[in-house]
UniProtKB/TrEMBL annotation:
InterPro entries: HAD-like_sf (IPR036412), HAD_sf (IPR023214), PGP-like_dom2 (IPR023198), S-2-haloacid_dehalogenase (IPR051540). It comes from Paracoccus angustae. The keyword Hydrolase applies. GO terms for molecular function: hydrolase activity. This is HAD family hydrolase. Keywords: Hydrolase.
Length: 231
């Protein structure tokens, strides 16, 4: 019996990475006179990776990483107007409406009555904004906003929920964050890919009976019924 179902938020319930990539495109164009577009994007990704321990996940860290990348790529010659535009890009992302992904309302309706936990990571203020704007908060028994999704972080979530790992299922678009840590703990991890998942979240799929893959969140209720069916 699956006692609790965890659902990721960004790019599982609503669009997120799309806006990062759109903003990255504007950032690359802004610095187009200083470097090749592919080199700018590659440098930005390297800076983002290096800054995760400092800033964590989310738009604000992305904004600061763009500023740092711009300064480094121009040897400090970037002007104040360009820095101002980078800040505007981040502010626009923070104000963007929340667009639910296809199949989400139907899947949540089919899971009505189950114990659902929204488990996301990133900046608390921005995540709370998106959860409120999504209109989905009342569907969840609990909301967990984590700094990162490690096995230890999931273990603390399950301890608070009073749920054993083998009775927990987590579904999301990140193999690294939503599947592997939960499988390691003894739970079920369900990978629901999104076309634009951030490179940092990529990881090889494990060959494990508790690791599952679905093409759409609409298939999640049926998977849970299969897992709970008598052998």
């Amino acid at each position: 019996m699956i006692e609790a179902i965890g659902l990721d938020a960004d790019d599982t319930l609503w669009e997120n990475e799309t806006f990062f990539r759109m903003t990255e495109g504007e950032f690359v164009a802004l610095l187009g006179d200083h470097a090749d577009g592919a080199d700018i994007a590659s440098r930005l990704l390297d800076v983002e990776r290096a800054n995760l321990a400092r800033y964590g996940f989310g738009i604000k860290g992305f904004m600061l990483s763009m500023v740092q990348t711009a300064i480094e790529l121009t040897d400090g010659r970037i002007d104040g107007r360009a820095i101002g535009r980078i800040l505007e890009l981040g502010q626009e992302m923070l104000a963007h409406p929340v667009d639910l992904l296809p199949g989400v309302p139907q899947a949540l309706e089919a899971l009505d009555g189950r114990r659902l936990i929204l488990i996301t990571k990133g900046d608390g203020i921005d995540q709370e904004r998106k959860i409120a704007a999504s209109g989905l908060a009342e569907r969840f028994d609990a909301v967990e906003i984590l700094a990162d999704k490690s096995p230890e972080a999931y273990a603390r979530v399950l301890l608070r929920a009073g749920v054993a790992p083998d009775r927990f299922l987590m579904a999301g678009n990140s193999m690294k964050s939503d599947v592997l840590p939960v499988v390691e703990l003894g739970g079920h991890g369900v990978f629901i890919p999104h076309a634009l998942t951030w490179a940092v979240e990529h990881a090889p799929a494990p060959d494990h009976p508790r690791a599952h893959r679905l093409e759409t969140i609409a298939d999640l209720p049926a998977l849970i019924r299969r897992l709970e069916a008598p052998a």
